[in-house]
User: Fold this.
Amino acid sequence: MRMLRPSWQAVAALVCCLVAFALPGMSTLELEARANPAAVIDYPFMGTGGLVVGLLVLGALASMIRLSVWGEAVILLFAAHFAAWLLLTGIMGYEGSALAPFFLLIAAGWLLVWRLVVVLSGIRTTNRSLEWTLRLVIPAIFGAWLLIIWEAATRGFGIPFILLPPPSSIGVRIASSLPVLAADVRQTIFKSVLIGYVLGCGAGFAVAILADRVDFLRRGLLPIGNMVSALPIIGVAPIMVMWFGFDWHSKAAVVVIMTFFPMLVNTVTGLAASGAMERDLMRTYASSYWQTLFKLRLPAAAPFIFNALKINSTLALIGAIVAEFFGTPVVGMGFRISTEVGRMNIDMVWAEIAVAAIAGSVFYGVVALIERAATFWHPSVRGG
Amino acid sequence: MTSKRSDVISARKLGLTFQTNDGPVQALSDVDLTIGKGEFVSFIGPSGCGKTTFLRVIADLEKPTSGTISVNGMTPEEARQKRAYGYVFQAAALYPWRTIERNVALPLEIMGHSRSEQRERVNRTLELVNLTGFEKKFPWQLSGGMQQRASIARALAFDADLLLMDEPFGALDEIVRDHLNEQLLKLWARTDKTICFVTHSIPEAVYLSTRIVVMSPRPGRVTDVIESSLPRERPLDIRESPEFLAIAHRVREGLRAGHSYED
Assistant:
């Protein structure tokens, strides 16, 4: 036993493999071929079935030998992903024919990856670049297996393309329509979203400062602001199209409306966030309104302001895409989604969704990075 | 009585009543007090006796509701506009986004000193409070005692002749407190400032002050003013001398006479 380091994931993977091996066939076609040995029937995993089982069994066993952490990680990574690749390429062309053993083997691979993530998460290191790599690799493996399971389920069960296309065909679609996607991104993200975001956040910030100076604005505007922020975007978008035309201007206007009030409300809250003692200190220096604003209240408000910037980064994207459903030139992400869904090109819809998700994450990530740099002093960033 | 030229603070029949939801609270009543240049005056008394309120009135952070007070012969508001005093709060109140150096430079920036003068003054005052070498640290990287020293440096940086200190060492442990008391006395001797010091520690008040103002609550008023007979030069072990103990005893008696310990 000293040589072994059992893990329940590897044991469970072994059980899956054994059950899969004991069951008669991996696909309906294989069963058919076995029943009529005379007929020539192509079936999936003709030569690779044994290889997959062998890979997973060996991987599971080897992972339980007392090796270094890195040895175990490499074995698991290789066994699980090579097996998954064989399984996914094998089922291609035979969609909907998979039987229980196929899914059991996918499950075995998934269990090995579970073990892999546990192993990687357990690594404690002081090496900064290694730590960063791990922080990226672990969620990447996690995400990759979401896609693998999606792919296996759609192809294995033969789910109709219209309902849910497999991620590989969405990927193919993205690769083959790069120019169209690029034009849509240019229209929706670089024009509507970014311009609307900058105008909306800037106006919200400026009005917050104004409301801070002028009491009747604070008392009068903020309650109305809450009402306006509850306006349904679906209702506002067509009106903006009538006011500002079909091009990006109307979408930017919708984004301005959506981002203005989160920024206003957060900045007003943030400006009240500095402590009484800190403000008394400024008073003892006979500091002017603007000096106190720039040297104390705005820095103290920064966490709130960045919160609004992060909320708005996702709101802006949603607003611009939805607004394009109500009239647009023949380009733009929302336009593409609404027309391609009508033409049953579901993979193109998914391609746009994927691009929007990536763009939104990048946008959010950039704002979050700037936030970390700007509010390094805040307990939530400096850690204690 | 008109205030003499050497009077830094002169209060006549000073009173302050806060309007709260539970009705009016008389924080100060009939306070008569004159503080001369170069004095080290401690205000001692239980919480609610108005010692902090009195300091805040001097600093124009509260407005009195009756009586008069002058600071350097002006109203507190004029004195504040002229940056007549440095104020040290109960907590360090350093800005966490500024380094120690830039925290100390904060009043200098606001008052419009040139860059080179800021640097020169920051270096000088940080040396005065023994914080040289910590210029580039952020407040949250320093201990509580060091933070409070930095806040004292910030109050000293613009060379006001009057230093108002509101229980500056209240949150620190005994050892750090002794050390800072000693340093504060040295600093006072070196700079010849007038210091008003709020505390609730009898030994601290006796050790530091040339005059001790004993106050009692409800309403906040002055019950005794004790001139210290201790020499200006005070090593820490002076606190075991009979003279020191006699003054401490008188302070304690004064606090008792004001019924400060009845609840």
Observations:
- The longest strand of chain B covers residues 7-20.
- The interface with chain A takes residues 59-61, 80-83, 85-87, 89-91, 93, 95-97, 106-107, 109-111, 138, 140 of chain B (CB under 8 Å).
